[in-house]
Design brief:
- The chain is of the alpha/beta class.
- The protein has a single domain, classed as 3-Layer(aba) Sandwich (Rossmann fold).
- It has 7 helices and 6 strands, in the order βαβααββααβαβα.
- It has a 6-stranded parallel sheet with strand order 3-2-1-4-5-6, sandwiched between helices.
- Helix 1 crosses helix 7 and helix 4 packs across helix 6.
- It is globular and about 50 Å long.
């Protein structure tokens, strides 16, 4: 299986980084695209080096490379995740505006009827944010804000990020042990 991952400049880069690491570790072929602002956000929010993140992925594509394989519908994959997804990227997708490889690959994923999962990061949300999310949801996009769950009693930020990553993998149909499961009492 192949999965395309886009990381935008919204806060929460650790979601995309963790997803790439877990998917690759599960034997999934990962194709990563980092926006220009994602690179800066990673520097501000994490101790990761960009080169180290690239080594987590099977393949890294430049956000400016509109000739990359992931820009074409003929590039078969099992879905795409944008984590985190900035409101700029969400708005571009809602308008069908494909100015870079993340929005182009997401647009192609949508037109080819493949799973597209967005982890939008913004709060509070205003009416335009909500309308863009609704428009994309009606087009078949899964809108999954990374809202923490507490039923598994997380004790670290890593616990919260890992639980969200497991839910994304669930939505892609990938077995994982990252998400705590409900059990019969």
């Amino acid at each position: 299986m192949r999965i395309v991952i886009g990381i935008t400049g919204a806060t929460g880069a650790v979601y995309g980084i963790t997803l790439v690491r877990e998917l690759t570790g599960a034997g999934v072929e990962t194709h990563l695209v980092l926006s220009h602002w994602a690179r800066r956000t990673i520097e501000l929010e994490t101790d990761y080096q960009i080169e180290a993140i690239g080594k987590l992925a099977t393949r890294v594509h430049s956000v400016d490379d509109m000739a990359a394989p992931v820009a074409s519908g003929s590039f078969r994959h099992g879905g795409m995740v944008v984590a985190p997804c900035s409101m700029k990227t969400l708005a571009a997708l809602a308008a069908g505006y494909t100015e870079n490889l993340i929005t182009r690959a997401a647009d192609v994923t949508l037109k080819e009827k493949r799973p597209l999962i967005l982890l939008p990061r913004e709060t509070p949300l205003h009416e335009i944010h909500l309308e863009n999310m609704l428009k994309l949801a009606r087009a078949g996009v899964t809108i999954m804000p990374p809202v923490p769950a507490f039923y598994h009693r997380p004790t670290t930020i890593t616990d919260l990020v890992t639980q969200t990553t497991g839910r994304v993998m669930d939505l892609l149909g990938l077995d994982n042990s990252l998400t705590p499961r409900w059990r019969d009492s």
